[in-house]
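Usage

Read records sequentially. Each one opens with the input sequence:
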Amino acid sequence: MNTQAPRSAAPVQTIALVDCNNFYVSCERVFRPDLASTPMVVLSNNDGCVVSRSNEAKAMGIGMGQPWFEIQQKALAQGVLALSSNYALYADMSNRVMSILGACAPRQEVYSIDECFLDLTGMPLLKALSYKIKNQVLQWTGIPVCVGLGPTLTLAKLANHVAKKHPRSKGVFNYNALSFAQQQRLLSQISVTEVWGIGRRLSQQLAGQGVHTVQDLCAAHTPSLRAQFGVVMEKTQRELQGLSCLDLQETAPLKKQIIASRSFGKSIFELPDLQEAVAHFVSLACAKLRAQNAQAALVQVFLQTNRFRPDQPQYAPCLAMALPHPSNDSVAINRWAQHLVKRMWQAGYAFQKAGVMLSEISPNGHQQSDLWTPLPSANEELMKALDHLNQRFGRGTVALSQPAPAAAAWRMKQARKSPAYTTDWDAIPCV
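and closes with the structure output:
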């Protein structure tokens, strides 16, 4: 006779995806509450494309990624306010939001600047907890968020979509709380394009196989899916079926490549301007490299003219070289990057973009030394001081520099940028 007490069933895994609503626009509205009902858009680098829209702008038909020059005249006539991207503000507000969310669960994965996953498995009163999370973030930062809960990361992201699109949810939706029949009915009403990782082209290919809704994807023949679309699609299907194939990454994996690149505010014709821009990109890339306590063994520099101007001569060189020793020293890497720029430079071209890529990345100290040639002394203390000053006073406070005209032509165009309310003492709002 079995006298042992029956074991209680393990709690169903509950993953929450917390997503900030219209994040860039919401950050701007925190400090400009008078814009709460104004149609707004935030533009990408050089005020190029729409990267964030208020609900009012969405209702007017303004699309994500739409070039601003195409809609500028009509949008301004309709009262749309367009702002340049204020990355310092958005990064600081994101850090505040993620810090609050990190205290709400034992495990957290920051997925992007405005999204994070939380593991709420086994926690009681999930509905009340979700609303508490939502209200606390809004009260403490002014940023509205929606919360979607599900048994897998993919279903949590889909539940967040429901929380955003359906007013009855009031910003919170728990997929786990539905019966099996309710889950199937819900999935049959959602287009497969809303599934995490399935874009327009892939959805068109799935439509050719008769897969139009999320429920169609769940019910599709798994071996056929894998044969045609690969193992990633099979994992997506199993995640939608409630079988966890992805896990939270509480620590971000080391990047295998680091790229710093940007289009210029206006075309560059002079070598000193180009050198100054590349030195800036080296500073950014090396700072990221040191932040993950790593070193690079290969540096690559590329230049591009404006490919959208066929009336101009085109030139897009790219050169790479192995460093004598793996390094994260901005000064040393910049020396080689400038050598590559000089080799690629040709007069008579209007350069519109440049970039630096660091690769063959390994943890600090993982390198084979030469028996006869000692390793060069690294500027470790200098780099630590540089990073400390930039963290304290803002990115770019101290940076590498090359001889260039006083008004750098390569600087990003931000004609509509708002103040750095939270990272610049001179921009703090006065009450």
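Summary fields computed downstream for this record:
- The radius of gyration is 25 Å.
- DSSP finds 14 helices and twelve strands in the chain.
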